[in-house]
Automatic annotation (TrEMBL):
Membrane topology according to the record: Multi-pass membrane protein
Gene3D superfamilies the record matches: MFS general substrate transporter like domains, Multidrug resistance protein D
Top-rank taxon, per record: Bacteria
Main subcellular location: membrane
Protein name per Swiss-Prot or TrEMBL: MFS transporter
Amino acid sequence: MTTSRARWIALVVLCIGTLMTILDETIVNVALPVMQEELGFSPAGVSWVINAYLIAYGGLLVFAGRLGDLLGHRRVLLIGVAIFTAASVSAGLSPSAILLVVSRFGQGVGAALITAVTLALIVTMFSEPREQTRAIGFYSFTFAGGGALGLLLGGVLMQIASWQWLFFINVPIGLVSLIVGWRLLPRGRGLGLGRGLDVAGAALLVSAVSLLVYGVITAEHLGWGGATLLTLGGAVILLLGVVVRQRRASVPLLHLGVLRDRDVAGANVVQFLVTGGLYGSFFIATLLLQQVLGYAPMQMALAFVPLTIVTAVASIVVAPFLTARFRERITLVVGLLGFLAGALLLARVPLDGGYLADVLAPLLLLGLGIGIVLPPIMGLAMSKAGEDEVGAVSGLANSTGMIGGAFWTAVVASLIGAVAGARGDAAGEEREALAQGLSAGSLAIAAVLVVALAVAFVVLRRRSDPAAPTASIADARAAG
């Protein structure tokens, strides 16, 4: 990596590769009914097209980040791209439900390897504070805009092609990412497996997070009763085992001392809350547009285009500008206030609401808030990562966000169902009842964002020097 131009080209490739993994969280949603009919899924079984991906993805993030530290971040990313691309081919060619679910699990494995080390590579390539802030802004947009782009791209592909192309589209992206990544990403041998891979700790961690993700994503269908609580309780016990193991291991997967830093711990808590608000608000807006306002799938996808554009501008332009002037804490508060305003306006969309009069403003505020919030969160989460654990810390930040997104979406979905069910018993009132449930869900998202604001005010440090670096890994290139 010798030139600034090459670094930015490599960043674009990293963001496109990550965007590919984010798209696959939502792009298949529009095709689930067709997959169910053609491959013989049961009504409950078709949800595993989503669940298999999320369980593998969420469960492996921290472990994948540690592998990056030991084997080299570039090497692990390229392996992840290869696995994801191969699994995409397998998914597109799947003749049965079982093979599709297995392929989706493989995609989740590849996605975890890609996502866990991408942020580590970015903060390694861009050590100068202002460049790093801009680079993280580009990367943040892949998360904030990826869900909306997935809905749009999925709707387009289902209009002009079959569901198989939802997976085949990943193949050229993956091949280009492999070629360009091989040539331009910083090379490095990593620390080496001889430095120690805590196999027992890894097994505990992967089991704990996978069980936690499974409990959360199935709570929407099973409820929050005995089975769900038993699953989540088992996950908590395993997580306690992870803490004990990490304290005793000679070379832990992740030094828990990094979480003693207020900025790192606070950023991960805010990440858990804000990503929940992100996915929860997308979930609510999708149901509002389709089932309350009567939008067709393509109309709904196009309705998200302004949000995606504003998110891009906010992540790439506004957030770096505010961070350079006011530092991460103030930037985060500004973004959270915009996000909160969007959630509150979303709760007030009437039954006969029009797009320009009632829907566009909350979507624009959501996009603005999301775009401003994510870059400072990621910068703070990585701010104390040493060169021997930058991948593991990156994996932790991504895992926190992924679990938060799944958890708060499940909570919001349960709340919407409870409110709509209580108010929609009379014939012909289902639409109004759903609207009331979505309003309650939006207010719940707003409450989550208020908690995030409180954490930002109370936990995060005030920083007076705009030129101070956001990461302490300026010499991490050698770790690759």
